[in-house]
Amino acid sequence: MNRIKISGSHYEQLKSHLFPGDGLEAVAIAICGRSIHGNNHTLLVQDIVPVPYDVCFERRGDIVHWPTDFINPLIEKAADQSLAIIKMHCHPVHFEQFSVLDDESDHTLFTSIHAWLDDDMPHASCIMLPDGRLFGRFFFNDMSTDVAHEITVAGSDIIKWNYDIGNSFIEHGAQTRNLQAFGKGTTALLNNLKIGVVGCSGTGSPTIEMLTRLGVGTLVLVDPDHIDTVNLNRITGSTKQDAVQKMAKVQVMQRTIDSIGIGTRTIVFQSNIVNVDVVKELADCDILFGCVDSIEGRHFLNLISSYYLVPLFDLGVRFDADGKGGIDSINGTVHYVQPHGSSLLSREVYDPERLRAESILRVDPEEYERNGYLAKAGESNPAVISVNTQIAATAINELLARIHPYRNDPNSESETVRIGISNGVSYMEETTDTCGYFCKQTGKGDTVPLLGSISL
Q: What is the pLDDT of residue 375?
């Protein structure tokens, strides 16, 4: 499958340049990383380079003629870093296909690009329509073409255009009430989503349950642990026998999903997230849910989100003790992280010192104990199914709001949702800053080492 992914900020930059309000065609170049996983080849937009209007030889409502030598420095960059190039232009007249002139200009351009790069890798051409919709095609080394099957915008709103004709394998009868609420378009989108959930216990279990019953097509489940007696108060479908047999949490969740019988497919890993196969499978997802307590888990999820342009929902629950054997307050938070924006690091969900401590604890427990100056890794926290489910439901509703805009305020004003369960207060926060560290990783895709991490 041929796919293109672009961050929300780059999409808005592209839309602003291609439709400045003059009704004339315009063009921009996207520099992209790559993700190759199975049969999927995804181009990941790293940067948008607008072709200035004043350098174009001609701009009309149905044609743009621009100096193609403008692209030469970008081809050199692509050659040096094994990157891909997408030519992007607009059709102000809402012509929903490539024109004869487009065919001629694309053939000339991509013949030159492939001759220069000679790497047997595809590049692409896209058209944006006045309503913002993108469609495109891939150009291969022999100048054969194929449709861009999916184009995704990972912004405050999650937009996915699917041009692949395929049948859903989700049970139709089980979706009747979902159809009544969200309609055919959103239901079909859910059926075609591949969502990764890291952490299958506290908030992860109810998250997985709800995603399954919403008709999500494929779930990737990651958790290294097995069922213990202490988990029976909150993991859907778990039994005392599972605890006795030390069944893997991912296997119990997979069994529960299969027993529901809606048709959701599962890919499971009884593993830590710091694993090449796990990272590559999560990178191939449309959306990620982080249901982990660990700082390292959150950091790697944010890395995957940035490198591979995958929106991330991070769930957290905190019980504050009163020092007398009781609970003073219960709070939950859902962070929505979109690539090329703010991050869990810039929002101070974790800090580098605690990340370092957890990394050392994982690879060298003796070294961790010897260095008492290091920040201590997190300890186990209380877990109550009603609290976990409330936070999970909040995260699921955040997802639904971003694929099916149903609330009154813009999604950009709800990057963080904080819930004070003990005092009955909840509020949303807008996050306008960008993360200097993670923005540098936008759209890098497959690298050596993976995610720039020596652990991989």
A: 45
Higher per-residue pLDDT: 235 or 304: 304
Domain boundaries, given as residue ranges, for the chain:
2-162, 173-447
pLDDT number for residue 376: 46
CATH number belonging to domain 173-447: 3.40.50.720
CA 384, chain centre distance (Å): 28
3-class secondary structure per residue, the chain: CEEEEEEHHHHHHHHHHHCCCCCCCCEEEEEEEEEEECCEEEEEEEEEEECCHHHCCEECCCCEECCHHHHHHHHHHHHHHCCEEEEEEECCCCCCCCCHHHHHHHHHHHHHHHHHHCCCCCEEEEEECCCCCEEEEEECCCCCEEECCEEEEECCCEEEEECCCCCCCCCCHHHHHHHHHHHHHHHHHHHCCEEEEECCCCCHHHHHHHHHHCCCCEEEEECCCECCHHHCCCCCCCCHHHHHHCCEHHHHHHHHHHHHCCCCEEEEECCCCCCHHHHHHHHCCCEEEECCCCHHHHHHHHHHHHHHCCCEEEEEEEEEECCCCCEEEEEEEEEEECCCCCCCCCCCCCCHHHHHHHHHHHHCHHHHHHCCCCCCCCCCCCCCHHHHHHHHHHHHHHHHHHHCCCCCCCHHHCCEEEEECCCCEEEEECCCCCCHHHHCCCCCECCCCHHHCCCC
Query: What are the pLDDT digits (tens) for 44-99?
Result: 999 999 999 999 999 999 999 999 889 999 999 999 999 999 999 999 988 899 99
Task: Say yes or no to pLDDT of 18 above 90.
Answer: yes
User: How many residues in total does the chain contain?
Assistant: 456
pLDDT for position 433:
87
pLDDT in tens, 404-432: 988 889 999 989 999 988 888 888 888 88
Strands 218-222 and 64-65, bridge-based pairing: unpaired
pLDDT digits (tens, 9 = 90+) for 202-260: 899 999 999 999 999 999 999 999 999 988 988 889 999 999 999 999 999 999 999 99
What b/e string do you get for 360-382 counting C-beta neighbours within 10 Å, with b at 16 or more? bbeeeeeebeeeeebeebeeeee
Residues 6+ apart with CB under 8 A from 38: 284
Q: For the domain 2-162, what is the CATH code?
A: 3.40.140.10
* pTM flag (> 0.90): yes
Q: What is the mean pLDDT of the chain?
A: 90
